[in-house]
Sequence to fold (331 residues):
Amino acid sequence: MRFFRFTGSSLKYGSYGLIAILLCILTGCGTAKKAQAVSTTAQVAVLSGYGCSAPFTPPPATSVNETLLSGGLSRQYRLHIPHTYRSTIKYPLVLSFHGHSGNALMQERISGLSTLAEQKNFVVAYPQGTIGPDHLRGWDTGPRNYPHVDDVRFVNDLIGHLEQTLCIDPHRIYATGFSNGGSFTNILACKLANRIAAVAIVSGGMHPVAGGCTPQRPISLLEFHGTGDHIVPYNGNSANDQEPPIHTWLSQWVERDGCQPTPTPFFQQGDVLGEQWMSCRAHAVVMHYRITGGQHTWPKGGFVDEQGQRYARATDLIWHFLQAHSLTLPT
Fold:
């Protein structure tokens, strides 16, 4: 098991060796290695509460860079723990994925999730992709020039690691991503629906999922997309590894979740249309915001949810959507 060594800040945790030893005793040092060997497509035992009551004190309101061994590779991620963190309380975990050519720090700044985490008391992890054949950082979502590593395994390993080292609520683990990170979030909804409660995608470029998309349960999904997006066109791009139109991709999720096939508009103001698909199985929700003329960016304008509540930023609405859903675990 790896222990937190905070880098990129003035805080050094090397003097806390005794705490690390005690944490190792409490959580079981061999567990992480076993978790790394689990297939990402198999049923995964949830490591509930392993990190609770551990003698860990995070620095106040800072984000830190960390590494994790996964699939024989040293993988990086950025972690933000709210300054109110207490190891006796189970916290939601949000995983936020950067776009192609981006990185974890950029995603933290673009999304503003770390600031919101301080207000709403949740933990945020910003996993970082690897360098692909095009010499840019990204996620393995299908295109030939993108990386080809087991990113799903990395996320699965990261969730297990954070559950063992922090007090994470296994019922409230969420994923969100931008662009290529949004496409990868879609893959996680297909492959890790048994660990992730709900997902939110911003300007995602969707490609056919290797091995097919067969989620183990209906999963709630929120999507934002601009009709003026020239990087990931709203109406699809067959020249880019068969990117489908956004409504075609959404319809596929509507069918998987067993929702009514016709969406219900609930908000239209200015350039923004909000619609959702109703009566999905297991209380799942599929929701979409179409931004007329919107570009390939993380939206910052005001939004209204299906209950008429206004939000100043897309990030606030994303958290509202995610936290409304929890994972029903098998008994």
About this structure: The first strand starts at residue 63 and ends at 70. The first helix runs from residue 17 to 27. Confidence is low (pLDDT under 50) at residues 1-47. The domain at 14-323 is CATH 3.40.50.1820 (Rossmann fold).
